[in-house]
Write a structure and sequence with these properties.
Layout: E1 2-5, E2 16-19, E3 29-39, H1 41-47, E4 56-62, E5 66-74, E6 86-90, E7 95-98, E8 104-108, E9 112-114, H2 121-125, H3 128-141, E10 149-152, H4 158-169, E11 173-177, H5 183-189, E12 192-194, H6 200-207, E13 212-217, H7 223-229, E14 231-239, E15 251-252, H8 259-270, E16 278-283, H9 287-295, E17 302-306
Parallel strand pairs: 4-7, 10-11, 10-13, 11-12, 13-14, 14-15, 16-17
Antiparallel strand pairs: 1-2, 3-5, 3-8, 3-17, 5-6, 6-9
Length: 308
């Protein structure tokens, strides 16, 4: 089969397009014919070796954790799906090896859910990792409730744009940081945009004088202190990008595969409560360009690689 792979850590230039062996199918796995795979910041961080202390790499590595596609075959212990079913997945395992930037991926059944029928394969591919990150942080970690005010960073990005919509579905008022060129986009998602950078606390307090009830950070670094300073006295803060959030009394969350959460997210998309904005698409053989574009860090919504 055709796939993108790399034999060593490095920049986008280490990504090679070519033939690799088709994956074997274990009893708890589903062989998915890939139609699209989204690019996430974690993909290039894995490629450059930043996650080497926590994830062993079995070279050659096929990158990619997000997928949408069609079930080709199922393992002997998988009654949940059948050939022809359309699925989405956050196909993360405990090592870097066989990812989703390929014509086929053998996905553990615990990483899959049914694809929302109203989303294209390209849109659906952008839902699992970013959507689960937002969904789990807002529901499991922050426990957002109806009537609360939530602050979301990078509200026009992959995780942020989905967090705005999910928080709105939960009944919250949402303030989202974004560059001015993305303010109208954030409004369309249901959020109230504010410019990030110096003076953020004052701008947020102008909208929420008593502080926000919950803050979700997806950037980390210096923004954590500002986000913590926007909180109401009993406010909660979580970060999905920087463990240093604990220094500000918050919680760090690394998204995990969960079929029930992924199906709940898929159902929200099917109901029209959540949509995915795809800003760019690239064919599989141009995945290195997709990585470069994502690494620039100014993407609105998602970048997706398509497999014909």
């Amino acid at each position: 089969m055709k796939a993108i792979s790399y034999n060593r850590y490095g920049g986008p230039e280490v990504l090679a397009y070519g033939d690799v062996g088709e994956p074997k199918l274990g009893p708890d796995q589903v062989l998915v014919r890939v139609r699209a795979a989204a690019v996430n910041p974690v993909d290039w961080k894995c490629r450059e070796g930043y996650l080497d202390p926590m994830l062993e790499a079995h070279f050659p590595v096929i990158p990619g954790w997000d997928v949408s596609g069609v079930v080709e075959r199922t393992g002997g212990a998988v009654p949940e799906f059948a050939p022809g079913d359309e699925v989405i997945g956050y196909v993360r395992e405990d090592a870097l090896s066989r990812g989703t930037f390929a014509e086929y991926v053998a996905a553990p059944v615990r990483t899959l859910a049914r694809k929302p029928p109203n989303l294209s394969f390209e849109e659906a591919a952008g839902l699992p990792l970013a959507g689960l990150t937002a969904y789990q942080a807002l529901t499991r970690v922050l426990g957002v409730r109806q009537g609360e005010t939530v602050l979301v960073s990078a509200a026009a990005g992959g995780v942020g744009s989905l967090a705005v919509q999910i928080a709105r579905h939960l009944g919250a008022r949402v303030i989202g940081t974004a560059s001015e060129r993305n303010h109208e986009f954030v409004r369309e998602l249901g959020g109230e945009p504010v410019v990030y950078g110096d003076g953020l606390v004052d701008r947020v307090r102008a909208l929420a004088p008593n502080g926000v009830d919950a803050a979700l950070d997806v950037i980390g670094g210096d923004s954590l202190r500002e986000f913590a300073d926007t909180l109401a006295p009993e406010g909660r803060i979580a970060s999905v990008s920087d463990p240093a959030v604990t220094e500000h009394g918050g919680r760090y969350w690394f998204v995990r595969p969960d079929p029930a959460d992924l199906q709940a997210l898929s159902d929200l998309a099917a109901q029209g409560a959540v949509s995915v904005h795809v800003s760019e698409t690239y064919p599989l053989e141009r995945a290195a360009e997709a990585h470069r574009s994502n690494q620039e860090g100014s993407t609105r919504g998602k970048i997706v690689v398509t497999v014909s």
